[in-house]
Write a structure and sequence with these properties.
This protein is mostly beta strands and 111 residues long. It has one helix at residues 48-54; strands at residues 11-22, 29-44, 62-68, 78-81, 84-92, 102-109.
Length: 111
């Protein structure tokens, strides 16, 4: 199991949903992010070997963030970091009996 220092969790991510809202001026529909909650996260970097292994798969061009274990993350489909929306590709919770557990969330930038 990987351990993290509290100082590693120095970035904030907003977890939520996307809603389609109509513009009252011209009637066009725009997808907007609706924040449900925010969590501090630690970015997880992959080794070069791991990067080579996922090339050409569904996990290509994704990034991993690590959050303290939180059951609310399980139903979330969209994460916003620094104004950029990401789809949750994979959620890997740590359900061990350890005192401090971490969840790994794999994100892919929305196009």
């Amino acid at each position: 199991m990987e351990t993290f220092k509290p100082a590693d969790f120095n970035r904030k991510a907003d977890f939520g949903t996307v809603e389609s809202k109509q513009n009252p001026n011209n009637g066009s529909i725009k997808k907007t992010f609706v924040n449900q909650f925010s969590l501090w996260y630690a970015p997880k970097t992959r080794t070069l070997n791991q990067q080579y292994q996922i090339q050409g798969t569904a996990l290509d061009n994704t990034k991993i963030i690590v959050v303290r274990h939180n059951t609310a993350v399980e139903g979330i489909q969209v994460v916003q970091i620094d104004g950029v929306m990401y789809d949750v590709v994979q959620y890997s919770p740590d359900e061990s009996n350890a005192i401090i557990t971490y969840d790994f969330v794999t994100l892919k930038r929305r196009s």
